[in-house]
Amino acid sequence: MITKAMKQGLSFAFVMAFLVGCSSTDTKTDEDAAGAGANGGVTTGTADGGALGSSNGMDDGMEELDKVIYFDFDQAVLLPAARSLLLAHSERLRNSDASARLEGHADERGSREYNMALGERRANAVRDFLVLQGVSRSNLEVISYGEERPLALGSGESSWSKNRRVEIDY
Amino acid sequence: MRKLLALLFCCFVSPAFAQLTIEITQGVDNPTRIAVVPMGWGGSSPLPEDVSEIVSADLQRSGQFDPVPRTSMLSFPTKPEDVFYRDWRAMGAEYLLVSSAEQRGGRYFVRYDVFDVLAQRKVISAGKVDGSPEQLRDIAHHISDKVYEKITGIRGAFSTQVLYVEAFQHEQKADNFRLMLADADGARSRLLLESDQPLLSPTWSPDGREIAYVSFETTRPAIFMQNLATGQREQLTNFTGLNGAPAFSPDGDKLAMVLSKDGNPEIYTLDLRTRQFTRVTNHYAIDTEPSWTADGEGVVFTSNRGGKPQIYKVTLASGRVERLTFDGEYNARGRVSKDGKTLVMVHQRQGVFHIAAQDLTTGTLRILTETNLDESPTIAPNGAMLLYATRFGGKGILAAVSLDAGTKYRLPSKQGDVREPAWSPFFN
Amino acid sequence: MNWRSLYTLPVIISVGLHLILVLAVTIGWESSTIDPKPRVFKPNVVQAKLVELKAKDTAEPAQKKTNVIDLTKKRELEQQKAAAAKKAKEEAARKARVQREKKAKAEAEAERKRKLEEQRQAEAEAKRRAEKAAREKAERERQERIAQERLDEAMRKEEQQHQAELAEAQSQSYVNMIAARIEQNWSRPPSARRGMQVELLIQLVPTGQVVNVTITKSSGNAAFDRSAEQAVRRIDRFTELKNMQPELFEQNFRQLRLVFNPKDLRL
């Protein structure tokens, strides 16, 4: 009896822990899904060489947006600070119908192939946010460079924090 | 009372001439003192390579030997009959290597003898090796292998090679990546592939003839296989997402890898004959860095399915997954030793990344390195040492440590950042 | 107890009595002398007493008999001389004188004899006593000696045991020293593993010098075997043994069996 109750309690705790663990992305996804719905979605379109076009578009007197989203160590969860920037990017991407390349990166710590996967996770997190904001998934290309292309050379948190990033290139 | 005592004592009189047995249960394990006498050579010009010096350096680097400096030698015998054991014993040498070379028809012929100075007898008699002038280093490594094996009881790995990546990166300049091949001592490095896009994860086929690696030359990661003798290369994968971490199975028939074509990084195997891909893992977390178990029946891999990266093992036949590491919050890129007993990995402790070895039977984990930012451990084919990448003086370098952590050395520094060593198998 | 002081008195007495006896014999006494020799070494006290009684019986009746004969002779002579008194008076007087003289002589003789006999008896008695004392003393000493020997034996054994224990303790300390020396000099190859075992037989000379090393049981790993042999050869001489007692060395250390069985290896 006791074991059964304990088992149930444990399973419940597990489920809760899992939900909590996913909540940071999930909550955003929910909010963004509502927003995306309000915008009526985006039709899939192809735009070969669209990246060049969008790059031109940025010169049209528009304020230049920061293109780098930062992450915590060994984390692929979007930080709250990235939200407004990503919203701005999603708006431009929606409007320009441009293709964007999302480059995921990691700092030099840990193993390289794991960091490669981690970089992809980060880029995926950005992509998922943008898609939920109505950006067409087919306009977004994800690539991870892991720790192979650091923004800042040198070892130390000041460099590492710059390198744990996703670069939005369009 | 006294009588009683006397009577009692009578019973205990020890038998005469009992064979005394002394049990020795401990030792000190000092490096073996060996004198490598300069090679005898009658040529008009000196040998293009100082073969004896290469042998001496090989043995020293292994950590198992403490070569006698030439300056301490009382004589330089080049023939067995010139050896006076007492001289060598006096300088503490336990072994003595005497050799001589001669040139015939453009080839060098070397004869060498190894003596047990303490027992005053030969342990290698009239060993012979020959090669072209370009192979003098190979001749030296061959002798090192034979001496090492005779004295340690372990096959020497001095004649093996190392793959590694050398990167030239500046914040304001274009990147340059080079896939390099060098002798196990770092000498005779040569370029295999150069790219302005990342190159990583080089690995050897078990016969040492093929290599596989990841190249971003197509602007996306892809796995390539390349024949070392012919230079012929082939792109094996071109999937969306990750195409990484290739690893040949022990029989050479399959290549394990990580692909994220289905959304999550998963472990796959590619049958190199049928070109059939088989998915091995299925989990929403990161699964990567596959490496075969010694028997080829399983694959160890890194996964953060428990929240943090840890090393797991999947049995291919059943698909059953078990977690192997429990010590610490970050264990990645496992490599199983050839005897299947040890797992080496990148292990984080107190924010510092070391190379650690875990005894797979007892589960005990030992940290092997004292450096920071250590990664990419690769075990020598004889299981005695491992190479890994670390940073020293602001640069990426390769370093070695014995699996008992007793010996450490750095490979000669290169111009760029050196990383991702892959120790070759035995070539014969 | 001092042996000499115990024997001095009896010896002096004995020698003195012998001297008297010899003197008596030289002046013509030829009475039955008792050969003392068979008695001296007879250890039986009872037999010696019997001999003593016999000696008394033979001596006394002889003396009485002479007295009786003398008295009857005297009475007969007085009756005969009553008839012829005058003539016989002188004769009688002479005879009486002679008789007196004879009697006196006989008495003197008897007295002398008696005295001699007494002396002899006293001598015999003294001798017997001395002999008895000597025998008893010898016996006592024998018993004491036996007891002493037993005690000595026990002590010797105890000492032996003690020595053996000491030797064992010494052996053990030498064994420890040898083991420590070898362990300090045993450098195992990296292929050495727990559970490997090699047995060596080494021969030493009393200086501690190793004169021979033989592998009697291989581990199967030549490098491991050689490392054990080298440990001994590197030491070359166990200088600790040079002060060892030779018997201990001969008994235990001329030849040693060494079992190399590493227990401190990780693998």
Automatic annotation (TrEMBL), chain A:
<keyword id="KW-0472">Membrane</keyword>
<feature type="compositionally biased region" description="Gly residues">
    <location>
        <begin position="37"/>
        <end position="52"/>
    </location>
</feature>
<keyword id="KW-0998">Cell outer membrane</keyword>
<keyword id="KW-0132">Cell division</keyword>
<protein>
    <recommendedName>
        <fullName>Peptidoglycan-associated lipoprotein</fullName>
    </recommendedName>
</protein>
<dbReference type="Pfam" id="PF00691">
    <property type="entry name" value="OmpA"/>
</dbReference>
<comment type="similarity">
    <text>Belongs to the Pal lipoprotein family.</text>
</comment>
<comment type="function">
    <text>Part of the Tol-Pal system, which plays a role in outer membrane invagination during cell division and is important for maintaining outer membrane integrity.</text>
</comment>
<dbReference type="InterPro" id="IPR050330">
    <property type="entry name" value="Bact_OuterMem_StrucFunc"/>
</dbReference>
<dbReference type="InterPro" id="IPR014169">
    <property type="entry name" value="Pal_lipo_C"/>
</dbReference>
<dbReference type="InterPro" id="IPR006690">
    <property type="entry name" value="OMPA-like_CS"/>
</dbReference>
<dbReference type="InterPro" id="IPR039001">
    <property type="entry name" value="Pal"/>
</dbReference>
<keyword id="KW-0732">Signal</keyword>
<dbReference type="InterPro" id="IPR036737">
    <property type="entry name" value="OmpA-like_sf"/>
</dbReference>
<keyword id="KW-0131">Cell cycle</keyword>
Automatic annotation (TrEMBL), chain B:
<feature type="domain" description="TolB N-terminal">
    <location>
        <begin position="20"/>
        <end position="122"/>
    </location>
</feature>
<dbReference type="InterPro" id="IPR007195">
    <property type="entry name" value="TolB_N"/>
</dbReference>
<feature type="signal peptide">
    <location>
        <begin position="1"/>
        <end position="18"/>
    </location>
</feature>
<dbReference type="Pfam" id="PF04052">
    <property type="entry name" value="TolB_N"/>
</dbReference>
<dbReference type="Pfam" id="PF07676">
    <property type="entry name" value="PD40"/>
</dbReference>
<protein>
    <recommendedName>
        <fullName>Tol-Pal system protein TolB</fullName>
    </recommendedName>
</protein>
<keyword id="KW-0574">Periplasm</keyword>
<keyword id="KW-0732">Signal</keyword>
<comment type="similarity">
    <text>Belongs to the TolB family.</text>
</comment>
<comment type="function">
    <text>Part of the Tol-Pal system, which plays a role in outer membrane invagination during cell division and is important for maintaining outer membrane integrity.</text>
</comment>
<keyword id="KW-0132">Cell division</keyword>
<comment type="subunit">
    <text>The Tol-Pal system is composed of five core proteins: the inner membrane proteins TolA, TolQ and TolR, the periplasmic protein TolB and the outer membrane protein Pal. They form a network linking the inner and outer membranes and the peptidoglycan layer.</text>
</comment>
<dbReference type="InterPro" id="IPR011042">
    <property type="entry name" value="6-blade_b-propeller_TolB-like"/>
</dbReference>
<dbReference type="InterPro" id="IPR014167">
    <property type="entry name" value="Tol-Pal_TolB"/>
</dbReference>
<dbReference type="InterPro" id="IPR011659">
    <property type="entry name" value="WD40"/>
</dbReference>
From TrEMBL, chain C:
<feature type="region of interest" description="Disordered">
    <location>
        <begin position="80"/>
        <end position="144"/>
    </location>
</feature>
<keyword id="KW-0472">Membrane</keyword>
<dbReference type="Pfam" id="PF13103">
    <property type="entry name" value="TonB_2"/>
</dbReference>
<keyword id="KW-1133">Transmembrane helix</keyword>
<keyword id="KW-0812">Transmembrane</keyword>
<dbReference type="InterPro" id="IPR014161">
    <property type="entry name" value="Tol-Pal_TolA"/>
</dbReference>
<protein>
    <submittedName>
        <fullName>Cell envelope integrity protein TolA</fullName>
    </submittedName>
</protein>
<feature type="compositionally biased region" description="Basic and acidic residues">
    <location>
        <begin position="87"/>
        <end position="144"/>
    </location>
</feature>
<feature type="transmembrane region" description="Helical">
    <location>
        <begin position="6"/>
        <end position="29"/>
    </location>
</feature>
<dbReference type="InterPro" id="IPR006260">
    <property type="entry name" value="TonB/TolA_C"/>
</dbReference>
